[in-house]
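TICKET: design request
STATUS: open
ATTACHED STRUCTURE:
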């Protein structure tokens, strides 16, 4: 049986070394570029006609637009509208990365913690900068909510700071762990189909079909969770407690 973790290996396609730094173009980079290209083509081609009565592709693009617009409005308010392009791009990038990764022999770069952590730390730093730009040093009151008794401050403030600093960790691990676990299970059950033959191979095959359908749901759900948490963090930076 093939190693189920082999699918997550980073392989160099074009070796590039700059002053001792390995900047090679890898399979992960290839699928990142491919994801951006597919999202761009999907949105460009689906909206090219601008039909009054939308077709299937235009309907899907408009549905995605409305879905994220409603998410931003419900979780951030009208002040979050200026950040809509970033949040929409983030959602589409993660969603299509997850979906493309379900294609046989494709590479799922969201199953790598370094990729999900890079996205999470970018969101964390960006939200923190927005908080300081809007509120200045008053942003530190986020860690000491109003109405809390003074005697509770020495205990509450460290907890709030620790909770805030753990955001990029929890945000990245959630996406990485779900994608990696799902693809590993698919590979494990697929490895039993051929060895068990015609008599017993149908059982793991049926499980794999069910898991594939479940993974489509997880692909959307994890993109949604990552994006909605970004909106909640943005709401905290804008409105504080």
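STATUS: resolved
RESOLUTION: sequence designed for all positions
ATTACHED SEQUENCE:
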């Amino acid at each position: 049986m093939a190693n189920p973790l082999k699918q997550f290996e980073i392989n160099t396609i074009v070796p590039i070394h700059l002053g001792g730094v390995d900047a090679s173009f890898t399979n992960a980079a290839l699928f990142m570029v491919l994801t951006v290209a597919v999202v761009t083509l999907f949105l460009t081609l689906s909206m090219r006609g601008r039909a009054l009565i939308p077709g299937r592709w235009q309907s899907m693009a408009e549905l995605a637009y409305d879905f994220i617009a409603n998410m931003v409005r419900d979780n951030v308010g009208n002040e979050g509208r200026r950040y809509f392009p970033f949040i929409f791009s983030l959602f589409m990038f993660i969603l299509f990365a997850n979906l493309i990764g379900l294609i046989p022999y494709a590479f799922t770069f969201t199953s790598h913690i370094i990729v999900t952590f890079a996205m999470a730390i970018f969101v964390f730093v960006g939200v923190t900068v927005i908080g300081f730009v809007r509120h200045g040093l008053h942003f530190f009151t986020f860690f000491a909510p109003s109405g809390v008794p003074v005697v509770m401050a020495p205990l509450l403030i460290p907890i709030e700071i620790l909770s805030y600093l753990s955001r990029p960790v929890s945000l990245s691990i959630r996406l990485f762990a779900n994608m990696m676990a799902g693809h590993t299970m698919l590979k494990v059950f697929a490895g039993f189909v051929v060895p068990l033959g015609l008599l017993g191979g149908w059982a793991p095959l049926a499980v794999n079909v069910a898991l594939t359908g479940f993974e489509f749901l997880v692909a959307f759900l994890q993109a949604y969770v990552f994006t909605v948490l970004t909106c909640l963090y943005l709401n905290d930076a804008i409105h504080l407690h």
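CLOSING REMARK: Residues 26-239 form one domain. The chain has one domain: 26-239.
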